[in-house]
Amino acid sequence: MDSNGECSSPPTLSAALLPLFGPPPEPLPESLEDKLRRVSEENRRLAAALDAILADRSTPRALATSSPSRGNAVAAAEPPRPKVRTVCARAEPSDADANHLRDCYQWRKYGQKVTRDNPYPRSYFRCAYAPSCPVKKKVKRLTRSELQQLFFFPSVLLFSNAVKRRTPPQVQRSADDNLMLVATYEGEHNHEQRAQSEYVVTDASTSLHQAGSSLPRSIISIDSSGRKKITIGLAADQRPPADSNAGAAVGEIIVTPEFRKALVDELVNLLTNDSEFVEKLASAVADRVMERIPGHIF
DNA sequence: CGAATTTGACCTGCGC
DNA sequence: GCGCAGGTCAAATTCG
Predict the structure, then answer these.
(1) DSSP code at position A109
(2) Which nt sits closest to A138, CA to C1'?
(3) What is the rounded distance in angstroms from the CA atom of residue A125 to the CA atom of residue A169?
(4) How far is A224 from A57, CA to CA, in rounded Å?
(5) CATH top-level class for A84-156+175-186?
(6) A174 touches strand B (CB under 7 A)
(7) pLDDT by residue (tens digit) across A145-168?
(8) Straight-line distance from CA A212 to C1' B9, in Å?
């Protein structure tokens, strides 16, 4: 994933990432169908790359590093690794503290740190609902480049030729406009969560709302397993992240319509402000129209 | 005034 | 062994 020690990436990852970071394709003249075919093919590769990234992120650290100090410990005697789940969510712009991803648990902030590759500080929380609860939560904002890498933006940028630019598209939203958050939950709650009656399902396909506070408006969650299940929409009985007591599904990716909409908004904003892309698109449409007009009608 | 948050210092693991 | 970066601690500060 990054260069800070995650050296045990599966061999498939680097191969899968090549299409993302490799040089742009040769600018050969091609028809719109060819372009669409190429983009579809690339989308397939990017989907595979995303799978590899997610699998890499969920690789338990203990497997990647075998500390000599712990080498003597009998494997069977080791305590079970804390369960790790990653949740991507979009905070509401109205949230004053956009770095606090709200869910049904009560969290106490115990630290904040500016990390190297992200201008937004990372926040650290502990479960404050039960003093003995070991669950921790890290919340950070996604940078724009992380967003573009994580989802399908590179494909479209490639299509629009914008990837050749050294500088990002001219129109850039303010940093504060980026409300995509990533929360990492570690451990399992050893207490009951609040009574289910506190939750009111207003629309199972979009979000759950809790009296007093709300769950993440939209989430993609990734568990520490190689297997993944993709569920569109939030099931009515879906529990908040790290609710292991309920036997949460392992290796689950939940994509809600709101999260998808947020991504599409980002994409539309990016492309509509990319004059080069608009110009090429208009040109391609004009070419297509010209092809359909018989040359002998006049 | 107590609880929650902020923030600089300190600790720890990892790569070189 | 050293330096860097992430994670945690705890005193100071803020807020209701």
Answers:
(1) E
(2) C7
(3) 35
(4) 8
(5) mainly beta
(6) no
(7) 666 665 544 433 333 333 333 333
(8) 36
